[in-house]
Write a structure and sequence with these properties.
Blueprint: E1 9-13, H1 34-47, E2 54-60, E3 75-79, E4 82-87, H2 104-116, E5 124-128, H3 129-143, E6 147-150, H4 155-164, H5 169-176, H6 178-191, E7 194-197, H7 200-205, E8 218-220, H8 241-247, E9 257-261, H9 270-278, H10 281-286, E10 288-292, H11 304-319, E11 326-327, H12 336-346, E12 350-353, H13 362-369, E13 374-377, H14 381-389, E14 392-395, H15 400-411, H16 415-433, H17 435-450, E15 471-475, H18 485-497, E16 502-507, H19 512-521, E17 529-532, E18 537-540, E19 545-546, H20 548-554, H21 560-567, E20 573-575, E21 586-590, H22 598-607, E22 612-617, E23 621-626, H23 631-642, E24 649-653, H24 659-662, E25 667-670, H25 680-684, E26 689-691, H26 696-707
Parallel strand pairs: 1-2, 1-5, 2-4, 5-6, 6-7, 7-8, 9-10, 9-12, 10-11, 12-13, 13-14, 15-16, 15-24, 16-17, 24-25, 25-26
Antiparallel strand pairs: 3-4, 17-18, 18-19, 20-21, 21-23, 22-23
Length: 717
């Protein structure tokens, strides 16, 4: 397999996982998923381009009696100029990627020997994932060949996810070798001359976490979509099993379909969609709603988050009496997904992604490729997709009226307008999101590297002067950031100017959806960490990843049924609306004139064996949370997870709910408008708090000056 001297020879490196050219075993384990599919499809697409001479995909050879013999073959031909080359790496049997680190030098040496045996050296090395990045750096350095890298997932983000899921720092090192992985990624980012990402958000919010963050070397090229799998419905398409499955839910199954497809995750915002549909008689008359939210046998067997979402879907269907209008099948297979899109397109329906946040939006591209107009959240990837394809509308995912209006706009615009959206989507996908389009953009980015006649100059790796994110700033939302719009912009600018050394957190009593809605209204970017519902929930950017370890931690001595039994009916207490309640927060209105005081309420709970935090704020709100949950405790949990000393955390609060954020070793500030009597006890206790003379965000800026908070935040370019 010898390439033309005038056409590039490209080597792709993807070391772990089970890689072959047919029947990919996607989902067999954590290492055989999107990346393996991506690199095989990329290799094929590159080889199909007339400008490319040869493509080798180098991966690990696996000789394991429990697996197919395909993975033990040294060579596998994918086309005339594309092949998979399998190289020995450590022991012969299959190993997860975390166990390969000690064998990567051997892989690199064997890969070097293979490349030297070829008629000519490759023109480009493209590494995929951290382990391949480690090998790619060695090969690029030895051969003087430009290195291109795609991270797929990043160690710093993974570390956050694992800590949020309850893994200890020791386990991260023992099981995942996370520090070694992050170090490999740092070096790779320092050496790679191009880094290929899927979205600009990925660049700004994930790669920006690294010391060797070089945005000038990063290029956004979305992955391609398999147009042989996702295509519009043919005129004579036969009935399908999925069609029959949906029909058993629906009184009028021939109506247009509003299709939503996602995991049963609160961040996907499906319950809000059902509510929007339930509040719109016109939508109900025009279309059926189809919710495909994972697979289940018994909701009670699922994790708590999925249980809550699916239970709320069923309760909302019942609340609005949507029986016969909403389908929510229990099971579907991967091969049913394209069929679902085509069924919706054949019905002249619409696909909706109402997620609170959506970094990319692969389902939107799949729907567009199937000839289906789309409606999607105005966050992240959907903005780019709809901007490129012009095949639908963006929505505020927390505005039910906006959601219903945009769905009606698609469904009532007439057949010609619907067809226009569908055709624009098809054309947009082919132009921007097909593998052919991906390869054309990819090759355009490689041309400056290919045009060089000399080996690349060695890159001098230079670390920033300060550890990335070595401090944090937390603020209440309503009373500290809002109230004076002209003060908010300079505050956000100051944060942005120092973003490489400071993490920004918001701690609020509001629920997640209400907090996000307020931030959208005031154009406050999503913070790095969002503590909601009075410290009972912690979410991490960019995907609003919930800290499930925190949930398990605070679910201690927590018996909401008994607490309600004790407090319900007491004079001066009135339970707040359901939307203000959550799994770990019980909220009342309190009339202090006639209600028992906090000491009495605590005594009543103690008499029933209940230990909980009882908080009164603004003179009218009473909240009960688990004894382990509060804003201050959540802040300290976060600080411990990120290894940030409390002395390097600036906490801005004001109401009684903020008191324990301000106690202790944090740098505390109360802005001028929030000199609240609920904090008077802190002054009496001698707590060291800075009382700003300026209000709202101006007061936080004053505290930044007072504490010289960013004085040592000198980050090299």
């Amino acid at each position: 397999m010898t390439p033309d001297d005038h056409q590039p020879y490209i080597v792709l490196l993807s070391i772990h996982g089970l890689i072959r050219g047919h029947n990919l075993e996607l989902g067999r384990d954590a290492d055989t998923g999107g990346q393996t599919k991506y690199v095989v499809e990329l290799a094929r697409a590159l080889g199909a381009n007339a400008q490319v001479g040869r493509v080798d995909l180098l991966t690990r050879r696996v000789d394991d009696p429990t697996l197919s013999a395909d993975y033990a073959q040294p060579r596998e031909t994918l086309s005339d100029n594309v092949q998979i080359v399998r190289i020995d790496c450590g022991e012969a049997g299959y190993l997860p990627k975390e166990q390969l680190w000690d064998s990567l030098d051997s892989f690199a040496d064997s890969a070097l020997e293979y490349l030297k045996q070829q008629a000519r050296l490759p023109d480009i090395l493209h590494s995929h994932y951290a382990d391949a990045g480690y090998v790619g750096v060695r090969l690029a350095s030895l051969l003087g060949i430009p290195l291109v890298h795609t991270g797929h997932s990043l160690g710093r983000s993974k570390r956050r996810q694992l800590l949020a899921a309850g893994h200890s720092k020791e386990a991260l090192e023992t099981r995942y070798h996370i520090t070694r992985r992050i170090e490999a990624e740092e070096t790779t980012l320092g050496v790679a001359e191009r880094v290929i990402t899927s979205t600009q958000q990925e660049v700004q919010e994930q790669y920006a976490l690294y010391d060797h963050y070089r945005p000038e070397h990063m290029r956004v090229i979305p992955p391609g979509t398999d147009l042989e799998q996702f295509y519009p419905p043919p005129a004579d398409s036969p009935a399908s099993p999925m069609q029959a499955e949906l029909a058993r839910f629906l009184t009028q199954p021939d109506k247009p379909m509003i299709l939503a497809l996602s995991r049963p995750d609160p961040r996907k915002n499906i319950v809000e969609l059902v509510s929007a549909y339930g509040e719109s008689p016109e939508l109900q008359q025009l279309a059926n709603l189809v919710i495909v939210a994972g697979n289940r046998d018994d909701i009670r067997d699922l994790d708590s988050g999925a249980q809550e979402v699916l239970s709320d879907i069923l309760l909302t269907v019942d609340q609005y009496d949507l029986y016969g209008k909403v389908a929510y099948p229990k099971h579907h297979q991967a091969h049913d997904v394209p069929d679902l899109y085509r069924l919706a397109a054949a019905s002249k329906g619409v696909f909706i992604n109402p997620a609170l946040t959506e970094p990319f939006g692969l389902t939107l591209i799949e729907a567009a490729a199937s000839g289906l107009p789309i409606v999607a959240t105005d966050d992240g990837g959907p903005t780019d997709i709809i901007g490129n394809c012009r095949n639908g509308y963006l929505i505020n995912p927390l505005d039910r009226a906006d959601m219903a209006t945009k769905l009606l706009q698609v469904l009532t615009s007439g057949q010609q307008a619907w067809e226009t959206l569908a055709q624009q989507g098809l054309q947009g996908v082919r132009h921007h999101y097909s593998w052919q389009a991906h390869v054309e953009k990819y090759l355009a980015e490689l041309r400056p590297l290919l045009a060089r006649t000399e080996a690349s100059a060695p890159v001098i790796l230079k670390r920033r002067k300060q550890l990335h994110h070595d401090r944090a700033l937390f603020s209440d939302l309503d009373q500290n950031l809002l109230g004076k719009p002209e003060a908010l912009a300079p505050f956000l600018t100051t944060l942005q100017d120092n973003r490489r050394c400071v993490l920004f957190g918001i701690a609020t009593g509001r629920r997640l959806d209400a907090a996000i809605q307020l931030m959208k209204r005031h154009r406050i970017p999503l913070p790095d960490v969002l503590i909601t519902s009075l410290g009972t929930e912690i979410y991490y950017a960019p995907n609003l990843l919930p800290d499930t370890a925190w949930e398990r931690h605070i679910d201690h001595l927590w018996n909401p049924r008994i607490i309600r039994r004790v407090l319900d009916g007491l004079p001066g207490l009135k339970l707040q609306a359901k939307r203000e309640q959550s799994r770990f927060k019980i909220s009342y209105y309190i009339d202090p004139e006639i209600a028992p005081d906090l000491q009495q309420l605590n005594r009543l709970l103690h008499q029933e064996g209940q230990a909980a935090n009882v908080l009164q704020s603004f003179g009218q709100f009473l909240d009960i949370t688990p004894v382990r949950a509060s804003k201050g405790l959540a802040l300290r949990w976060f600080a411990d997870q990120r290894d940030i000393p409390l002395e390097r955390i600036l906490a801005a609060g004001g109401s009684g709910a903020d008191a324990d954020m301000l106690r202790g070793n944090t740098l505390a500030v109360v802005v001028a408008n929030r000199h609240h009597e609920e904090l008077s006890e802190l002054v009496q206790e001698g707590v060291n708090i800075f009382f700003a003379t300026r209000p709202y965000a101006d007061g936080i800026l004053e505290a930044i000056e007072h504490y010289q908070f960013f004085q040592s935040c000198e980050v090299s370019a």
